[in-house]
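Task 17 of the worksheet. Students: predict the tertiary structure of the chain below and write it out as structure tokens. Keep your answer in the requested format; marks are given for formatting as well as content.
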Amino acid sequence: MDATVVAIAGDGGDAGHRRPLLASDDEIRPHPESPSPQTEDAKPGQKPPRVASLDVFRGLTVAMMILVDDAGGAWPGINHSPWFGVTVADFVMPAFLFIIGVSAALVFKQKTPNKTVATKKAAIRAIKLFVLGVILQGGYIHGRHSLTYGIDLDHIRWLGVLQRIAIGYFLAAISEIWLVNNIAVDSAISFVKKYFMEWIMAIIISALYVGLLFGLYVSNWEFKVQTGNSTLTFPTTSNEVGIMMIQCGVRGSLGPPCNAVGFVDRLLLGENHLYKNPVYKRTKECSVNSPDYGPLPPNAPDWCLAPFDPEGLLSTLMAAVTCFVGLHFGHVLVHCKTSATLLLPQDHSPRMLLWLLASTVFTVSGFLLQLLGMPFSKPLYTVSYMLLTGGVSGFLLLVLYYIVDVVNIKKPFILFEWMGMNALIVYVLAACELFPALVQGFYWRTPENNLVDATESLLQIIFHSKRWGTLVFVLLEIIFWCLAACFLHMKGIYLKL
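Model answer:
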């Protein structure tokens, strides 16, 4: 069980023939071949076929994250939904969690000889990923357009994307280690018996989330805000810290100011450690440029200035269930073997039909819950949102699996496959803006005269449009990272935790 599972890294397996990035075998390992669930079908001495669609899925997910993060400001239509509803951007985070579940099912497909040791390794990997997330997304790295770094520990942000992935991975790994029954799968009934407890765990987590979301009493609360250049309910000097009071006193509210998700974070993490630029600042109540960020409209509610963490504790608990959805798809991949027929050397239809059925059930259930009054909301990570995005992720995996692994059309997706093989390093350098910040550190006379900003400005001039110039710049950025991942792949260098 030495293989690491990270949603944006590899799936585990043996790849000792590749050259590692660093000498430390415990910290960074070479990317393994994506494990095949068909090891029994391979001839003796022959390496089993690789499930390339998993790499493509990972690479496509990272590329979409770069696209929506860097181009979402110029194209609000592909940016995250301000509060309720879903856009293209809102499917990216669940896709990360979904593929981590699929990967966990493949890594832990064999019986764990020592559950305590396996649990320790899973915990260490989750902690390393969590710490990396705090460093990259806790405020220490100021990102693009800033040549400074550092964070006041009294205001560090403890949660973020990588931290959510770490928690989701840990729960999925623990479930695979401790909750899977040690029985052979030779029928649909035995399949259900083997993984029955994992679904019970997913249901318990969902029930706990729903109970807290609708059952917690959210009292009136206050927060501090720098009042300069803000539309407030009372006059202040430019550097004064104002105290804002939010009137709640309700249960079951799903709106921005009085929901249980924010209440739990303020109670357990503290106001200072939450995200300071929440997505609801792009709602009509909080922005004259909605659905984009903008100045506060007249008589804007005070909660428009309040912090809120989109990767908070309660929403992350629900997000972990998406990993369990991925586990199910991975289990189907492991146990539903392909078989030869008169027409095809391998018949993938049973596996694909089960995926199609599961994806349909999840998606339809999400829409039904919305009709029953639970809206789609990424910031809250509502159950309806989890079901919808989990189902869509299943459909995407099904389509990619059919094209890449069944029909064997790989060339159009080779860029994403390369990126998927080294998704972690691409995410850290590109999506977390480490590389752009490094390049911007070299400038001519003033910090604005750097290669990154100059390239983007040039493209905006060429296309006579800030929006189209930015979009082309981001697409070129994605291609650049695909080619960088290709270079690392050819050198046999793969970064993993």
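Marker's comment: The chain has 14 helices and four strands. The radius of gyration is 23 Å.
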